[in-house]
What we know:
The structure holds three protein chains of three kinds. By secondary structure, chain A is mainly α. Chain A has one domain: Fumarate Reductase Cytochrome B subunit (Up-down Bundle), CATH 1.20.950. Helices cover 75% and strands 0% of the residues of chain A. Chain A has helices at 3-11, 13-34, 49-59, 65-70, 72-90, 93-103, 112-135, 137-142, 145-165, 172-189, 197-214. The radius of gyration of chain A is 20 Å and the shape is globular. Chain B has three domains: 6-131, Fumarate Reductase Iron-sulfur Protein, Chain B, domain 2, CATH 1.10.1060; 136-292, Up-down Bundle (Glutathione S-transferase Yfyf (Class Pi), Chain A, domain 2); 305-415, no CATH class. In chain B, helix 1 (6-16) runs antiparallel to helix 9, helix 15 (229-245) packs across helix 16 (257-271) and helix 17 (282-291) packs across helix 18 (321-330). Helices cover 69% and strands 0% of the residues of chain C. Chain C is built from seven helices and no strands. Chain C is globular. Classes of the chains: A mainly alpha, B mainly alpha, C mainly alpha.
Amino acid sequence: MTETEFLLWARGPAFQGATVIFVLGVTFRLLEILLLGRKPNLAEPRGSAMLGGLRTIVTRSFPDAGTHKRSAFTHYMGYIFHIGFFITLLLYAPHILVIEKAFGVSWPALPTTVVDATAVITMIALIAVLLHRLKDPVLRFLSNFQDYFAWFLTILPLLTGYIAFHRVGLPPPALIAIHILSVELLMVVFPFTKLMHAFTLFMARWYNGAIAGYKGVNS
Amino acid sequence: MSGASLERGINALKEQIDAPTATFFSACVHCGMCAEACLFFTETGDPKYTPIHKLEPMRKVWHQEYTFWGKFARILGLSKPLTDAELTEWETLVYDSCTLCGRCSMVCPVGNDIAYMIRKMREGMAASGHAPAGMIGATRRAVTIGSPMGVKLPALEAQIRHTEEEIGFAIPVDVVGAEYLCTLSSMEIMNFPEYIGAIARIFHETGVSWTISSEAFEATNSGIQIGVSDIAAELVERIVRAAEKLKVKAVISPECGHAYTAIRWEGPNLIGRPYPFKVFHILEVLDDLRKTGKLHTTGKESRRLTYHDPCQISRRGGVFEQPRNLLNMVAENFVEMPENGIMNWCCGAGGGVSANERADELKMKAFRRKKAQLDAVAPDAVVSACANCRIQLEEGLEVNNMDIPVISLTETIAEHLAGETSTEARQS
Amino acid sequence: MTEIRNDTEFRQKLESLDHARQRILAARFVENVLPFCNDERVSRIVKIASDPHASADELATALRTAKAAIIDSHARCGAECDWKDQAGYFVARAAAAAVSPAGQSAGGPAWQAAMGSRMAATCRSIDSTEDNAGQAKMQQYLILSEFLTS
């Protein structure tokens, strides 16, 4: 197989396959959760569960001062790598083209130099987060294979994308193919790891806010 | 609680897992922030007290029963099922180092309500025979005698008689058609019976019609704390029967944290039907009397006062404005703790921890978080609205050589009552 | 000897006394129920409270000891209650009231000590056939009467 054929395969059938697995996997996981159901609450409500749920989806992104002080590193680094990841994913011109081809929507891109710098900052933040996970007693205690594997799956597209952009080591087609494969790997494994939090965090925050809001508490 | 077995425990856990629980387990990213919200971790530095870790056995059951790959692995024998040894190991984590305070639930960035899950996990622990001995004893007494501490009706009647002598008028018992049915916690009956006098005087002065029921005077619910919903339901049912028999409009929960959670929020779901009456915490009733202009107080405390929010009343109960409204009526120097209201720190003794002798040392360690708050505020006295918090605060302050009186909010209001039943009127 | 017929009179007379005299009287109330308490610290506190020349320091120390005695004797949450033991808790509370500084006990130290002592007696009556509570009240009226005429 030539490099070009490899790239075409990565961009074509492999990507389609990965997308199908991703979409089916996520849908399946969400159904697995939702079909468990939830008993109705027969206690007399004091406040609104609905408003509470919607509120907490937003407010849980902004911890109170005391909590922030105690978890400042996690808070800051977490935001940096998440925001950085989404900037490189969604505000990079070649990525926007892919999205436009698939969904017909597009939006302005950031200058490539900015995205490039963002990718570097994101990777540094991810490394910092890994070191923290390895060093901090609570994180070391809690962390398992899945935590480290998810980290690897997250940094790999950034790293391979950065290398592909800077054309280091191999011919560009091969580098791009590797980058796309790293994304596909992420997509395929995503539904079966904690990366599902990308979807379930909205549900979890909702439930949390609804349960508290029912009692008149803003959680 | 009879016939406990690993199988029953696992089945109980399976039954408890609902969509929220599955969502929470799926969303956890092992960020560790819940540890920093938990006083058992912050005051010991031991990672095993990380709240989400306390749920590991339940997470395992969820994974192996309700996720595709988890089930797949289990069926193929690639994963280890939950063992009795694991549940034994988790007993101290689930019961000794958790008061169900819910601070972790407020802090988790993905929104997990960890306390919600711990409550569920206790159902599995109890069904598998892994609940602490002290709590088992309390629950047994609650079921057979009607009080977790074995307080029987004659004892309550003696306390009532004493109170009637002290206040100079009768206390209504078994009055059909009274507006409110007041329940009491055994801790109050035994250690702080002046609470009875306080509510009697307040209601007498404000013209509220109320009664105690000789058939259902116990407010606390050991079933909630130990995690046996059938027992919890039975204990709630007793109060419901009495309330229906006496045709009251509302039931009042006393100064006790978990009693409120049990009757107000869990009760109807435990017994499977809504109540034909309302439920209030005593502070809600008092604040309502204030709002409607019926409650008149005189004089103000000049001491520097702060308020300890009982977790089940404030954060998990939603009654956090009322105590402040009431305190501002009678205090001219009320100062908040650095983290207060729904973000206040637990005293360390709720959720059955104080009924568990094995947890005594850990409980006192956890208290250091409250000590730190009190050091920051340096109050002349600390006010609260839960008899269990009160005892823990008193013990903790004593152990740490801090001379700060702990006072009840309801009793403080009663002390400042204006009118016939006021302290001055009684003195003249 | 002034006869005291009811609690209204009892309380009125108590509150007409100054703080120091109330303390002595309070000590006598507690002494009356000392047999209900196993904690020897409490009898020492009563001795100090009874001493008209007790210094402020001694009283402060006695109060700290009383508070410790209270905490040691209260009923544990969820533990099986023992009303005889609980009597000791209320005796300790009465003792604490006796050595409290002025202005800290609603109704005064003597009234608080009287109530605490009666509660201790009430506790003894529970699970028994004696009417300790009724006796305690009458004894308190007598103690007050004697005190006022002495």
